[in-house]
């Protein structure tokens, strides 16, 4: 454990430290050989995740990181050497708000003289598809923030998150039970198309740590995080193998998948956004045709899908 209160150690401000990405960043820094001071922001400094951070020696600052609260936000960043910034689209589903809050965080880090910003962006689907896919606003908004950050004058690295392996436990119903009692992963991606899957808890922070610890801060770069680039057929096959349950991949048409999601209770806009994002992953690639980053030299081995699947508790999903 190398989290310290010693002023000689760099101060890393971590947004979202009570959540998945920021939590992973805190853990990776805590396991570094180098010492850091870490400041975590949360809207509720007494919640259990905040208490866990305090117990690790993290300074927990209660602040609502919204534009209405600009002065408090700027104050909260004072003293920051490096900032890890992430926004949470899924909490409000509003691209304009995500963009405004992303820019606010960059402005705050700049105002306090941060030496570097690590931002969790995503590529612009509407730009990379030449306007063909315009509903993937949780990608497009983050790409606008990335452009803003690159022009901020502060050394700026974009560290987009791959598709979370943890999504299989999430609200989108990525694994379904079939009437015969077996399970299926049913998307509109061609069976052999690969996606950059990431164990967001164990692996994401390793890429952020590497960026912060690089001899030369990787200003201007995109570090496209991944645990394993993998095709959906293999996801299903390996999940079957490690759990002993039958899980197959079914290739749906776009229309079939939208219909199924709406039938399962997803709002139409969310169903279209989700399905269009997978259409983009299939046709152009999750990282808009750029390769995933190397998983070598991160200081800690990353997880394969099979390792993730083996260690996860599927008892509430594969039932
Ligand atoms: N699911 C995927 O496959 C995937 C892939 C790539 C990117 N993403 C992106 O990941 C983002 C979410 O990141 P995550 O998964 O790490 O989120 P998460 O686990 O849900 O945590 C959200 C974090 O954001 C903090 N937060 C949100 N609004 C805040 C505010 N107004 N002030 C202060 N803190 C605030 C929360 O802190 P408190 O609640 O403690 O205040 C919490 O720590 C989304 O924008 C999504 O688009 C997801």
From TrEMBL:
<keyword id="KW-0560">Oxidoreductase</keyword>
<feature type="domain" description="NmrA-like">
    <location>
        <begin position="11"/>
        <end position="288"/>
    </location>
</feature>
<dbReference type="Pfam" id="PF05368">
    <property type="entry name" value="NmrA"/>
</dbReference>
<dbReference type="InterPro" id="IPR008030">
    <property type="entry name" value="NmrA-like"/>
</dbReference>
<dbReference type="InterPro" id="IPR051164">
    <property type="entry name" value="NmrA-like_oxidored"/>
</dbReference>
<dbReference type="GO" id="GO:0005634">
    <property type="term" value="C:nucleus"/>
</dbReference>
<comment type="similarity">
    <text>Belongs to the NmrA-type oxidoreductase family.</text>
</comment>
<dbReference type="InterPro" id="IPR036291">
    <property type="entry name" value="NAD(P)-bd_dom_sf"/>
</dbReference>
<dbReference type="GO" id="GO:0016491">
    <property type="term" value="F:oxidoreductase activity"/>
</dbReference>
<protein>
    <submittedName>
        <fullName>NmrA domain-containing protein</fullName>
    </submittedName>
</protein>
<keyword id="KW-0521">NADP</keyword>
């Amino acid at each position: 454990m190398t989290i310290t209160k010693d002023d000689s150690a760099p101060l890393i401000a971590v947004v979202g430290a009570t959540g998945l990405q920021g939590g992973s960043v805190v853990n990776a820094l805590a396991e570094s050989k180098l010492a850091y001071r870490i400041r975590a922001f949360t809207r509720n400094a007494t919640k259990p995740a905040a208490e866990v951070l305090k117990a690790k020696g993290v300074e927990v600052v209660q602040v609502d990181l919204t534009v209405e609260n600009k002065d408090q936000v700027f104050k909260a960043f004072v003293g920051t050497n490096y900032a890890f910034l992430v926004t949470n689209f899924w909490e409000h589903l509003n691209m304009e708000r995500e963009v405004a809050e992303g820019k606010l965080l960059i402005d705050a880090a700049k105002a306090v003289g941060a030496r570097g910003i690590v931002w969790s962006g995503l590529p612009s689907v509407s730009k990379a598809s030449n306007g063909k896919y315009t509903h993937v606003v949780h990608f497009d908004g983050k790409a606008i923030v990335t452009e803003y950050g690159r022009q901020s004058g502060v050394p700026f690295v974009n560290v987009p998150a791959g598709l979370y392996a943890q999504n299989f436990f999430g609200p989108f119903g990525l694994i379904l039970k079939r009437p015969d009692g077996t399970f299926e992963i049913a998307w509109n991606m061609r069976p052999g198309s690969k996606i950059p899957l990431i164990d967001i808890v164990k692996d994401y922070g390793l890429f952020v740590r590497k960026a912060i610890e690089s001899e030369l801060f990787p200003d201007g770069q995109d570090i496209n995080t991944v645990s394993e680039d993998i095709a959906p057929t293999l996801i299903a096959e390996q999940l079957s193998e490690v759990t002993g349950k039958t899980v197959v991949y079914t290739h749906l048409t776009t229309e079939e998948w939208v219909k199924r999601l709406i039938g399962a209770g997803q709002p139409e806009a969310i169903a279209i956004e989700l399905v269009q994002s997978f259409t983009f992953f299939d046709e152009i690639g999750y990282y808009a045709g750029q390769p995933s980053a190397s998983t070598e030299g991160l200081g800690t081995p990353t997880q394969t899908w099979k390792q993730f699947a083996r260690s996860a508790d599927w008892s509430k999903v594969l039932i």
